[in-house]
Specification:
By secondary structure, the protein is mostly helical. About 90% of the residues lie in helices and about 0% in strands. It holds the Pfam family CsbD.
């Protein structure tokens, strides 16, 4: 996993988690859903990079 992609995945996950929590806290379902989607994007990016690493070794 390249350092840049790893950092990008972690950033997306953290931003998504924060946005989801904020949306839930204020009762904004749209914001919570956007946060969940952003977190999922980060999770998918991380999984893709881990798979690439597995095939390199």
């Amino acid at each position: 996993m390249t350092a840049g992609e790893k950092a990008k995945a972690k950033t997306e996950q953290a931003k998504g988690k924060a946005k989801e929590a904020a949306g839930s806290a204020v009762g904004n379902d749209r914001m919570a859903a956007e946060g969940q989607a952003e977190k999922s994007t980060g999770d998918a990016r991380e999984a893709k990079e881990k798979a690439k690493d597995a095939f390199k070794h």
